[in-house]
What does this fold into?
Amino acid sequence: MKTLSLLAAIAGLALAVPAAAQSTPGYSYYEVGNVAAARPAPTRQGLMLMGGGEWDYRAFRWFAERAGHGHIVVLRASGAGEAGEEIFGQVGGVLSVQTIVFRDRTAANDKRVLDILAHADGIFLAGGDQANYVRYWKDTPVAALLDAHVKKGRPIGGTSAGLAILGGTAYGAMDGDSIDTPRALADPIGPGVTLVTGFLHMPRLAHVVTDTHFGARNRLGRLIAFLAAARQRDAQAIGIGVDEESALCVEADGSTQLYSRSGGFAWLVQPAGRAAVKPGTPLDWSGIRVTGIGPDSRFDLNQLRVAAPAFSGTARVKAGQLLDAPAAVHQP
It folds into this structure.
C-alpha cells in the first residue's frame, strides 16, 4: 500500500507540468513532469546496460526506484523528447524527465546543461551514433559530471550507443561506419576497429568492452575482435554483450538481474591470454570462454562468476573465422 501511495503521489506531482520543448544554440531541451518537486526517496547506485530495441519496462522501473522515483535526465545526439515521454508516461514512477539533445560540442560547456546534469537523480544515455557522444562529451565537463553522478550513489543507464560508451574501452565507430563481425575478425587492429579509452569511468566497467544488439546482429565475433585489440593495452579486458530488448541491471554491490522482453541474454566473453595480432592479418585466437546470463542466472560483476548460466562454451577463431561458438537458444 505504501508503494502504491508513493507512486500515486508522484503521478499527481508530475502531471502538474506538461511536456515542453526549447531550442538553444548547441542543443535542444525537452521536459515533462514537475522538475521542481522534491524527490520522494533516496537514490542508490546502479547500472542499467540495455542492448537496444524495445525496452523491458521492468528494467526501467528498477532504474526509477534507484533514482528515488525522482528526476531523470536523458542525453542523446539525435531525435527529440520521445524517450522522455515514454519513460514518464508509460514506465511511470518518476517526477520528471528532462531530455537534452546535443548538436555539437559547445553544449558540453553550457551552464544550464551542466546544472541539469549535476542535479539529476538518474541519467539515461539514449541510442543513436556513439561517435557523436565521443566527439561531443569526451574530455568535457559532461563526461566529468557523468562520472561524478555515479560516485554520488545515483544510477546511470544506456541503450545501444548509450551502452557502447559505458565500458572502460568503448567501440566509438569513429570512422562513420559500424563494423560487422567478418570485417572485425579479418583485421582486429585495422582502421575500422576504433576503440576509445579514457572516456567514462563506471563502477566495475574499467576492464569491460560492451557491445549491443548482440545476438540479432551476430556480434560475438565482433566483440572478440574488440577484445583482441583491447588486450594489447589491457590484459584484463573482458566483454559484455547484451541482446536486443534486454537489460542487465547491476546493483551497487555488483550483483545483477537480467530482464528481457524476448528471451534474450547478456553474454560474458572472457578470453585466455593475449592474441598475437598484426595489421591486415585475420585473427587467430583460442580459449575464449563465453557464458550466457539469463533471467534465472546469478552474475557477480565483481568476481565475474555466473551461477546457473543460460549456456556456456569455449569459442576459437581461426584465420578470421569464428568456430565452436555456443548456441544461445531463446526461450519462447
Remarks:
- Residues 2-323 form a domain with the Rossmann fold fold (CATH 3.40.50.880).
- The CA atoms of residues 204 and 302 lie 7 Å apart.
- The mean pLDDT is 93.
- The chain has one domain: 2-323.
